[in-house]
Design goal:
This protein is α/β, with parallel strands linked by helices. Helix content is 51%, strand content 9%. It has 2 domains: 77 residues, Winged helix-like DNA-binding domain superfamily/Winged helix DNA-binding domain (Arc Repressor Mutant, subunit A), CATH 1.10.10.10; 163 residues, Glucose-6-phosphate isomerase like protein, domain 1 (Rossmann fold, 3-Layer(aba) Sandwich), CATH 3.40.50.10490. Strand 1, helix 8 and strand 2 form a beta-alpha-beta unit. Helix 2 packs across helix 3. The protein starts with 12 loop residues before the first helix and ends with a helix.
C-alpha cells in the first residue's frame, strides 16, 4: 500500500475505513457506489472479490481498484490482508480513562469519536459554508425529519430558534404542506432536512419541491446518502455505522449543533442579546 499503508504498524484497518467514510461525499458517483457497498458490507466483504463487488455495486471492476487506490490501498489483495490483520491482532492501547472497558467497548468508543471527528473536519468545507450561509441568510427556516430522526429534527428546530428568528419544525404529514402555499422570494426560505438510512421517501420529494419553489436546501445525513448531492451543494454527511444496534446519531447531532453555533455567531448576530430576551420571556411563565 501507499501513503503510509505499506506497514501495519503505520496504519490500521479502522484508519483506512475512516478515510473512506470521510472521503465518501467527495467521490465520483461510480466510486461512491463502491465505497458505499464496502461500508455497508464490512462484515461480509472478506468473502467478496473485486468482480463480485463490481457486479453488486453496478460498476466496472476497474472502478473497485480505483476507489481502493484513492485511499492508499493497491487493490483487493492488500485490502484483504489489512482486513485479516484487523481481526487477528489486539487493538491499539487506550488511555487510562478507558482502561476498564472491554475490547469491544473500546472499539465502539473509538468509532463514535471518529464519527464526531469526521463531522468537525467538515468545518470550512464548501458544503458547510453553503449550509451556514443558507441557514443564516434566509428569512425563515423549516426543519424536517422522519422516522427515527424526527425527534432530532424537532430538537434542532427548537435550538435553531434560539439562534435566529422564524424557525419552525415542519411535518408534511400533519400540515399537508400548508406552510408552502405561498412560494417565497428566491433564497428567502430554507429547508433543513435530517435523514438516515432507510431514507424516508418524502425527504427527496420535499427537497426537490423546495428547490422548485426557490427555497434553499440543507441536508444533514449519513455517509450513504447520494440523492442529496443532486439537489443541493449544502450536504453534511456524518458517519452513522459505528457498530451499535441501530445507526449512531452522534455525528448527526454534532453536525446540527455546529450549524446552530455557526448561525448564532455569524456576522450580524447577537446571540447574547437573543438569549437574554428568551430567558426574560421564559421567566414570565415561571420556567426558571
Amino acid at each position: 500500500m501507499s501513503h503510509g499503508f505499506s506497514s501495519f504498524a503505520q496504519a490500521s484497518f479502522d484508519e483506512f475505513i475512516g478515510k473512506m467514510e470521510a472521503g465518501l461525499p467527495d467521490l465520483p458517483r461510480q466510486e461512491a457506489k463502491v465505497a458505499q457497498y464496502f461500508l455497508l458490507n464490512l462484515n461480509a466483504i472478506s468473502f467478496e472479490t473485486g468482480k463480485t463487488i463490481a457486479q453488486k455495486a453496478g460498476v466496472a471492476e476497474i472502478t473497485v481498484g480505483r476507489m481502493l487506490r484513492r485511499f492508499g490501498c493497491a487493490g483487493m489483495k492488500e485490502f484483504k490482508e489489512l482486513l485479516r490483520h484487523r481481526y487477528s491482532v489486539i487493538g491499539d492501547s487506550v488511555s487510562d480513562d478507558t482502561a476498564e472497558l472491554s475490547g469491544d467497548w473500546q472499539q465502539q468508543r473509538a468509532a463514535e469519536l471518529r464519527a464526531v471527528g469526521t463531522v468537525y473536519s467538515r468545518i470550512g468545507s464548501p458544503a458547510f459554508a453553503a449550509a451556514e450561509r443558507y441557514l443564516r441568510e434566509a428569512d425563515e427556516v423549516h426543519v424536517t425529519g422522519f422516522q427515527t430522526v424526527r425527534g432530532l429534527a424537532e430538537d434542532t428546530a427548537r435550538r435553531m430558534a434560539l439562534a435566529r428568528p422564524r424557525v419552525r419544525f415542519m411535518s408534511g404529514h400533519d400540515s399537508m404542506l400548508s406552510e408552502w402555499l405561498d412560494p417565497p422570494k428566491p433564497g428567502a426560505s430554507c429547508l433543513l432536512i435530517i435523514d438516515v438510512v432507510p431514507y424516508a421517501a418524502e425527504c427527496e420529494t420535499l427537497a426537490r419541491l423546495a428547490r422548485e419553489q426557490g427555497r434553499t436546501v440543507v441536508v444533514v445525513t449519513d455517509e450513504y446518502c447520494h440523492w442529496a448531492q443532486e439537489v443541493t451543494d449544502a450536504v453534511i454527511n456524518a458517519p452513522s455505522k459505528t457498530g451499535l444496534f441501530l445507526e449512531s446519531v452522534l455525528g448527526l447531532t454534532a453536525a446540527t449543533s455546529l450549524l446552530i453555533h455557526a448561525v448564532a455567531t455569524g456576522p450580524g448576530s447577537d446571540p447574547d442579546q437573543r438569549l437574554r430576551d428568551w430567558k426574560r420571556l421564559a421567566q414570565r411563565i415561571g420556567i426558571f
